[in-house]
Amino acid sequence: MTLIIGIVCEEGVVVAADGAATLGNLGLSTVRQQAKKLTILQDKIIMGVSGPVGLGQILLGEMDKIYSESLLSNKEPHEAMSIISDKFRVHINKELEAAQRAQGVVGIGGTAGMSAISFSLVALPISKEPCLFQFNQQGAPERANGDLPFVSIGSGQQIADPFLAFIRRVLWKGQSPSMGEAIFAAVWTLNHAIDTNPGGISEPIEVMVLRKPNSEWEAVELTEDELKEHKETVTYMEKHISDFNKPTPELVKDLPKIPKIKK
């Protein structure tokens, strides 16, 4: 079980994830353990994979190789995500083919395909521009942008997407968020998913940012101290919403009146 969130913001990209990994075999879960789900590559790439650990490790290695061989140099964002997609598909297709061959033996309930289904998020600079790419179970790419600046993958996506849409509508008001606002949104969404998910998504959360403090892009993980203020703001926001149900006399006079229904 996994939830990984990516948000494109004014100063770069924020990527965050929960810290639970579920182990199992043939579709049966055996134990849940803490695990890091985000990886920094080449000091300027953030990558997270939802799905089988083995395939995720292969895709991480491929992404590292792509960048180290300068295959993305002087490319436009759409060209870069096409190159990454082609490289990822080589490995994904191998797993899909192996799953298809195993279908007759372990295919009950789709078990054979579980080792081949993965989703990936990659944040990296392309042509001096911060980019956030999503790759689905077939390796098909999609880029997050100002029109839709957030994306989530994993079992917690059905909880995260509506909550992120709510934050965007209410707090960002259709604008690109600042990095601080994006970090806060990621922390609040993860907390919400952890509190409401029936199981498999849990603490600790990790948050990484792709930023450009000077002339070079860098990918760094935020410390617990750096996240503390955002977690406190989440607590404040939820208390503020709760207190709205107990309005003060000053607040009551400004509240709109609920229209009466005519009989």
TrEMBL record:
Gene3D superfamilies: Glutamine Phosphoribosylpyrophosphate, subunit 1, domain 1. This is Proteasome subunit beta. GO terms for biological process: proteolysis involved in protein catabolic process. One of its GO terms (cellular component) is proteasome core complex. It comes from Candidatus Woesebacteria bacterium RIFCSPHIGHO2_02_FULL_39_13. It comes from the Bacteria. InterPro entries: Ntn_hydrolases_N, Proteasome_sua/b. It holds the Pfam family Proteasome.
